[in-house]
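Supplementary Data S3. Sequence and structure tokens for construct A.
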Amino acid sequence: MLLKDKVAIVTGASRGIGKAIALLFSKEGAKISAVARTEEDLKKLKSEIEASGGECLIFKGDVSKEDDVKKVVQETVDKFGRIDILVNNAGFGIYKPVVELTAEEFDSMVAVNFRGVFLFTKYVLPYMMKQNSGVIINISSIAGTLGVKNMAVYSATKWAVNGFTESIMHEVREYNIRVASLCPGSVDTNFSNVAGSNPPSRDKVLKPEDVAQTALLIATLPERAMLSHLILRPTNPR
């Protein structure tokens, strides 16, 4: 069990990549605090984890709201005594040309995709710094490394996450805290993939479990080693 007795907070944990990470990390021994907006799906996740002998706290909340974030962090520490891993996974995209995108849609993507990463990082780091150890994995996107038509704002939020990750890595590595951005390409989830005339084949794109395995690799490297930025692509998506 590669994560025995570790404590992990996973945001956007009720489905897709976040759920796959929560399940795999629990299987490897981690105690999970799962955060998402859909309580019913969170309860299903909790049941799956506990049926396999794991421990799971669930939190229905909004990662962009400071009080919700503070509650998750404090109750995780109160229950488990520490925080070893933070997976900032919550995010979503609205695919439209910029001229059609509303200011409210802009604000909502920035709030969830970037502000949420900032808030959880801000409130988790003091515990990791006190422990002199920890891993933060920010699930970004390949869209955070290149521009994509009709994804300007989503792409911009993921560029922001990558820049934030790189800067935080330099701030906290002296505390033996490792900070990484994981940038998947097309993943077979409920999250909207890029529409196009020749979309990738669903049976060839990445699966949530592939991203979870990569996150596990990042989290379980020897403490002296760190992956700070990783792009994960389908081998042959067509």
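Construct B, processed identically:
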Amino acid sequence: MIRVFLVRRAAGLIGAAGLLALSGCLDVPHPFRDPGRLGRSLAANAPPARLAVPTPPAALLGDAAAREWSHDVAAALLDQSVPAMAQPIRAGDWWLRLGAVTRGGQVIPTYSVMTPSGAVRSTDEGAGVSAAAWAAGDPATLRLAARQAAPGIAASLTGIQADQMDHDPRSLKHRAARIWFAGVRGAPGDGDVALARAFAAALRDASDAVQNTSHDADFTVSCVVTVSDGPAGTTGHPQQHLQLVWRVVDSAGKEAGAATQLHDIDAHTLDGHWGDVAVAAAQEAAGGVRQVVSRYSGRDNVPLPPPGGAPVVANSQR
């Protein structure tokens, strides 16, 4: 799984006390990972939870080197959170067709994403490789070619998923995400109530709808607040560490991401009313949660146009 760590800062959350940092730990979606019931509902023809990488029959390599290259490509794609498997094609598989052509005295590796019906959905080319090293099946050369190509292939897969979502009226590209907010616990003073009210108000927009039940929710959000003793402080006043963790899970209960807010405060300053602090913290958290939902669902990803503008049926049988 690919993890993207974001750090955002907003002033004025604790008055003159300083800054409250929000860091979001976000899951970047890939269409060949099994995303559970939610993900399978995002596109009418979502790809299955694997990408087959068969041994190429015509890649200007010997049999052993061709097998090694397919394993190298599968391993490099796993590093990009694409569950690729170096195996023969099975019914219903999306798969990656490996190949190679000579151009300008070099070998150019090629990578075509294929639908189960055998149609080319996208094609990427790798960097030029020494023809002699390629023909010799040099292991380092094959591994390097696979590592260099993997990010582009993963990006193509994400674009394919986005195109499918774009054509599916049920996907989150065409409706607001249904979010059940399970509340806040652990905050001192009136923080549980104040944060919950402020967050529910801050999250509602055209992209996200907060509902009062978990039934049919796309995502569930909850927040846990912890307060622990800190250092004495530069002026001799006792300090406390304040941490707010806003956790987002999908409809299958899988972790979609989390946004964590951290701050050192004068001890017990939030033991009573949170007031504007709750509003500012909730607005910041809503932005982080919105990014988690967008990244995990892929609703903001740019669709990859079908080759030649022709529609592609994702899961048709060969």
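Confidence is low (pLDDT under 50) at residues 1-48, 310-318. The helical segments are 36-42, 63-78, 131-135, 139-166, 191-203, 276-297.
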